[in-house]
Design goal:
This protein is mainly beta and about 425 residues long. The protein is about 10% helix and about 40% strand. It has a 24-stranded mixed beta sheet that branches. The chain has a two-stranded antiparallel sheet with strand order 4-5.
């Protein structure tokens, strides 16, 4: 059995975020106390040492790894001769025929809500490249965002629209808090128009922000994301919030794609056992917040819709996260996660090409915006500088609601 393997009867327990061969963090890593940095919204977890030789899993690469079940050692079926298309188009639909996605926060002791709906004409679409983890959002896509009671008498409803194509690359090695490499968007609320242009050059990674055609102001990436929730021009705050919502939705696109990859990597174990438990990264705190356990977990449950004892189209799945943080790999969820996500009606199309089974279509869709459904899913942004962890308390969102998300092989002329 590989080093670090934990076996428990019943549900399969795999060490690490990525699967059987992911290395566990050493329990001997020194961890200093957690504290709230004065004058900021950052909860700092300091002196977290890093180890060389970190394990990473890239979407679209199926690991040849051992799996354990119910105290016995066995292998999942290896996916030799299988693969996927190089480039997919995706379409995320929410708030059209189904309830919107609701992002909620607790601010100054009161709970506030952000409602996100898809646009009736310009859906949230783009391209996804599994091998590199690159997503490009289409020009013209739009989201209608309502943030009531955030800014007093200022309009609480506004629209995010991509002025140009926006690229987000989440490749190898793992890059935390991925920031767009190019593109631009506008925010309009019926009164003002704010334009945000992403800048990615040496020493100048951030956003040029312009209000109603005025001279632009440059904000570095962290400063731009931090405009929301601080004493700042409301118009700039709206642009910051629009970016945060876009960023969270892009993370859910990665999350859904990686979930399908995880299902396929462990499909035989899921079919045999019905449930798998993955240990998340060790998060021991000597004097940290008592509500954070030493180590979280995530559980994947399989629901066999047609009773054929195989993973296939139409089946359902559920993730249950318990204080799960995955900091040393390309992780399933960027940050810390708690809560539940249901996946209904797996969509999957496979073609035989040159002796290989090639996936040309995948995702989850019920036709009413509920293929992927979040229930009290708490997402905490974690900033990681390799020496310390910082929780941005302004970037803690509880997600409810859902969307349909389907990836289809892109045509040869796609960029």
């Amino acid at each position: 059995m590989p080093e670090g393997g934990n076996v428990t009867p019943g549900p399969c327990v795999f060490p690490g975020a990525g699967g059987p061969l992911s290395a566990m963090r050493s329990r001997s890593d020194p961890m200093a106390a957690a504290f709230l940095e004065p004058g900021t919204s950052l909860l700092i977890i300091s002196s977290m040492k890093r180890r060389p030789g970190k394990t990473a899993i890239l979407l679209g690469i199926v690991l040849c790894a051992a799996a354990w079940s119910c105290g016995e050692e066995h292998r999942d079926e290896e996916a030799s001769g299988e693969g996927s298309a190089d480039l997919f188009r995706f379409s995320l639909e929410t708030g059209r025929e189904a309830p919107p996605i609701i992002f909620s926060q607790v601010i100054d002791g009161r709970k506030v809500f952000i409602e996100v709906r898809g646009d009736d004409i310009n859906r949230f679409t783009g391209t996804f490249e599994p091998g590199s983890g690159r997503i490009v959002l289409d020009e013209g896509i739009a989201l209608n965002i309502t943030a009531a009671d955030f800014w007093g008498d200022a309009p609480g409803a506004f629209t995010f629209r991509a002025r140009d194509r926006i690229e987000i690359a989440r490749g190898f090695p793992a890059i935390r808090n991925v920031f767009p490499t190019f593109g631009a968007f506008i925010v309009v609320d019926g009164v003002d128009t704010v334009t945000a242009i992403f800048v990615d050059s040496p020493g100048e990674r951030g956003v040029d922000l312009r209000v109603n055609g005025s001279q632009s102001t440059f904000f570095r990436e962290a400063a731009f994301a931090g405009l929301f929730g601080v004493d700042e021009d409301v118009r700039r705050q709206k642009a910051s919030l629009a970016f945060i919502i876009m960023d969270l939705l892009v993370e859910q696109i990665f999350f859904t794609a990686q979930t399908v990859a995880t299902i396929r990597e462990h499909e035989q174990t899921l079919a045999d056992e019905g449930v798998m438990v993955f240990s998340c990264d060790d998060f021991s705190l000597l004097n940290g917040p008592g509500q954070i356990p030493a180590q979280g977990s995530r559980t994947l449950t399989f629901f066999d819709a047609d009773g054929d004892a195989e993973v296939g189209s139409g089946d359902g799945f559920r993730w249950d996260f318990v204080s799960c943080w995955e900091g040393e790999r390309i992780s399933l969820v960027e940050g810390m996660a708690d809560g539940r996500v249901d996946f209904a009606d797996l969509v999957e199309s496979v073609e035989r090409r040159n002796g290989r089974d090639v996936t040309t279509r995948f995702g989850f869709s019920r036709g009413n915006g509920t293929g992927v459904q979040y229930t009290d899913f708490v997402h905490t942004q974690v900033l990681d500088d390799n020496e310390a962890l910082a929780f941005d308390v302004r970037r803690v969102f509880t997600i409810n609601g859902g969307f349909d998300l389907v990836f289809s092989e892109a045509g040869p002329d796609e960029p």
